[in-house]
Specification:
The structure is a homodimer.
Chain A (H helix, E strand, L loop, with lengths): L11 H8 L2 H4 L8 H5 L10 E5 L5 H8 L4 E6 L2 H9 L5 E5 L14 E5 L8 H11 L5 E7 L1 H4 L7 E2 L5 E5 L6 E5 L6 E5 L2 H10 L2 E9 L3 H6 L12 E8 L1
Parallel strand pairs in A: 1-2, 1-4, 2-3, 4-5
Antiparallel strand pairs in A: 5-11, 6-7, 8-9, 10-11
Chain lengths: ~250, ~250
């Protein structure tokens, strides 16, 4: 059950909890960062060969197919998520069960590679980035999101206070890339912390040009609608990155 | 005395304190981040037209001239720093007193633009970036450092503890760009906080390609030699950025 990368999504308790999140029940529109991520995708999806790394329930795969993608492939390590994705899906979408940590992707086989909140589970991200760079032709796009490095850095993640007693997100060990264990939906979920520099320099080294980056936090309208998002102005929740293969 | 940008360097107390820092007394080698910044500069400086924005005492200007730069210009708003720079300097270096917030730079007049820890004082950085983009020909380089956004973000800057009592740097208001007032060498020093995304997207918008980025923290050897640097592994002190004009 435990490979190089922890497959927490197939544990009963985690899967049950994850299935109840707005992003699982309502799909892309249930994810507060989706509109920002969508704005970083190609305006015209028609005709593209799309690959989704960590496709989960397949919401993005179906979205891409609806917009005229020529082919859509979703990859995930979770049997449970893929089973549900296949139930709800169009047979034109190909789902593959595979571990992103040991994935091989055919040369020049995709025009757009997308990944939402999956790379921070991958132990050997550099090997995956090499595969992605090989899979994209010149001009192909990689658009992805991860938990923001400021969120993944601390050894003990949780809100605290600054020296004046104001609410703050305490950061430590930021420059030490490596695994962090948190209790999110289940005890002992392991994620890989990487600094912003680690992510960006890895992409620059492997023939990607950075085109845009978002440190996502909620808009005022979003915070007004969902007060659980209010604190997220203090430190960005997600890092969204758009790159082009050069 | 106070323009759009605060010129704190010409205040007696601040100037006296700043003059005692290792980076003021020992020059580039007294700045712990210098070796990292130097590694981002062109290997061959000979023949380049170099412009240093916020040149202070002129250490970098002299370094560039020593390495064969064709011309070197240093710009700073501080009369006191320029006076000392000129005393110690080679007449081949041209020093100009000017505010980076209202600077005009001649078109295609530099091959390398360098700035160390000055941009976080600039109120209208976007106008300056437009000037820099115009001053560099295609292939010209901009290399700069600023205080890291994680350092400038909090309203009250200072070490605190996480929820478990471990030392941590408390971050809040990260997504709110704007002035922050700190007490560093003098009371009420005003710096401009900008998120990582603000810095990088501004450069990408204005015809720069990102080539490398460092979130600088001390090496183990540096921390062993200077224990005041030990905490800086928890959150990077400086952001170092290398870009090419496209």
């Amino acid at each position: 059950m435990w490979g190089v990368t922890q497959n927490i999504y197939d544990e009963d308790g985690f899967f049950a909890g994850y299935s109840q999140l707005p992003r699982s029940r309502r799909g892309l529109e249930g994810a507060p960062e989706w509109q920002s991520l969508r704005a970083m995708l190609p305006e015209e999806m028609a005709g593209l060969r799309v690959l989704d790394l960590g496709c989960g329930f397949g919401w993005f795969c179906r979205w891409a197919l609806d917009r005229g993608a020529r082919s859509v492939t979703g990859i995930d390590v979770s049997k449970k998520m893929l089973a549900r994705a296949q139930q709800e899906s169009d047979p034109a979408i190909r789902y593959i069960e595979a571990d992103l940590d040991s994935l091989t992707i055919a040369h020049a086989s995709a025009d757009l590679i997308y990944s939402s909140l999956a790379f921070h589970y991958v132990t050997n991200l550099e090997a995956l980035v090499v595969q992605i760079a090989g899979a994209l032709p010149r001009g192909g796009q990689l658009v992805f999101s991860v938990e923001h490095p400021m969120v993944t850095a601390p050894l003990h993640q949780g809100w605290s206070e600054d020296s004046e007693g104001a609410k703050a997100w305490p950061v430590n060990h930021y420059l030490e890339d490596g695994p962090r264990t948190t209790n999110w939906l289940a005890p002992r979920v392991v994620k890989q912390h990487r600094s912003m520099a680690t992510y960006l320099n890895m992409l620059l080294r492997h023939a990607f040009t950075l085109t845009h980056l978002e440190e996502w936090g909620p808009t005022e309208a979003q915070s007004a609608e969902d007060s659980s998002l209010l604190d997220e102005r203090h430190r960005p929740t997600f890092l969204l990155v758009s790159t082009v293969r050069r």
